[in-house]
Amino acid sequence: MEVSHSQYYMTAVIGRNQLKIRLFPYFNRLIQPLINLKNDARFGSYVASMDVRTLNPRSVDDKKVTDHHALLITGNAPKDLSADEQIIYEMIAGRMLEAFSKKCIKDATTIVFVCDDAVFVSKGAVIKQAGWRAVFGETDETDDDETGALPEISKDETLPILQSEILEKQTKPKPLHTEASLLGAMESAGKEVENEAEREAMKESGIGTPATRAAIIETLFARDYIRREKKSLVPTEKGLSVYETVKDKRIADVAMTGSWENTLSQIERGEMQPETFGKAIEIYTRQITVELLEQKIAVADENTCLCPKCKTSQVRFYSKVAKCTDMNCGLVVFRNKSEKQLSDKQITDLLTKGKTGIIKGFKSRNGKSFDAALKFDDDFQVVFDFPERKEKKQ
């Protein structure tokens, strides 16, 4: 395959066929390096199978290419690369090939089974055209809730029940954020807002802007709120203290940003006066200031309590909870138990001895007062331990 191109057109000669294809300016810089990959050890066979008539010319939007364009390979063939350099080169070259490849087409099937009042759903997907997935050989990838091909069945068909069993499963906590995933979460923070108008207002904003999000994360590092552990971002003791203080306060309400964006849109449309919004901001500032000044932060001594569950990390004391610093451990003791506020000493006894003394003044659901000790069960959940009643003498 031979290729020549002018500013807006590419002429490709394949065998005896000559094709003239209209290109876009940015696309011009990319096509030749891609064609040169036909001699690459890893991607050569894939490039040879590509049809230049079906290349995706709109993989790059010229209007959105500003200061930082994508990482691109050049027309120079790599030589004497180290193992790590080769990996990085292939990641960039492969991604370019994926961007210009065909779509991946799958046949997706969903089958709904009804048995009495129970509804069961089974999903399956079969890849009909690998498209861009074939660059790295990703031809059999399915979603977490999908299987491969499902059997042929008809609508309203009745099937016999061959076997049934109950499985007990446990949900997994979300993984720790990396810098990349945190940036993505900040960008799409509006998805968590329940109010539809506020969620729509935040659709294009999120937390911060593309220019400020990285700086926000660096500020968290500079103030010792988070630290890096390999690729993961882990909150420090100081960061957890701040979180426990503000998590249920107005200053930490993501919907606030959505509300402001919605209000600014109303001002833009002439539906609200800027002065009204300014006064609302003044009131909000006073409220959050008073709210924060009333808070008290209680943090335990670093070596006070070893976590009885993981037996490696320390337990920190906060205004509403005591929790293990190891996020994967998950040990949490809430201070409020049946309308009784636990003291630091009572929580310390629970953590170090596995049990508190008798605590008076718990309230049952019907409002009756009772006394009991607290202890951990086998799963390290806090449960009541009632004192044995002495039998009355006959």
Commentary on this structure:
This protein is α+β, with helices and mostly antiparallel strands. The chain folds into 4 domains: 99 residues, no CATH class; 42 residues, no CATH class; 115 residues, Topoisomerase I, domain 2 (Orthogonal Bundle); 71 residues, no CATH class. The protein is 29% helix and 20% strand. It contains 10 helices and 16 strands. A 3-stranded antiparallel beta sheet has the order 1-2-3, covered by helices on one side. Strands 4-5-6 form a 3-stranded mixed beta sheet, with no helix packed on it. It has a 3-stranded antiparallel beta sheet with strand order 9-10-11, with no helix packed on it. The chain is extended and about 85 Å long.
CATH superfamily of the largest domain: Topoisomerase I, domain 2
Unreliable spans? 1-24
Q: Count of helical segments?
A: 10
Portion of residues in helices?
25-40%
Principal-axis shape = extended
Characterize the largest beta sheet: strand count, sense, and whether it forms a barrel. Answer: 3 strands, antiparallel
Query: How many beta-strand runs?
Result: 16
Beta content: 15-25%
Q: How do the SSEs run, as a string of H and E?
A: EEEHHHEEEHHHEEHHHEEEEEHEEE
Q: Radius of gyration in whole Å, from Cα?
A: 31 Å
Describe the protein's topology.
Blueprint (H helix, E strand, L loop, with lengths): L1 E4 L3 E6 L2 E6 L2 H12 L7 H6 L33 H18 L4 E11 L2 E12 L16 E2 L31 H9 L8 H6 L11 H10 L3 E4 L2 E4 L1 H10 L7 H15 L5 H20 L21 E3 L3 E4 L7 E3 L1 E2 L2 E2 L2 H10 L5 E5 L5 E8 L5 E4 L9
Parallel strand pairs: 5-6
Antiparallel strand pairs: 1-2, 2-3, 4-5, 7-8, 9-10, 10-11, 12-13, 14-15, 15-16
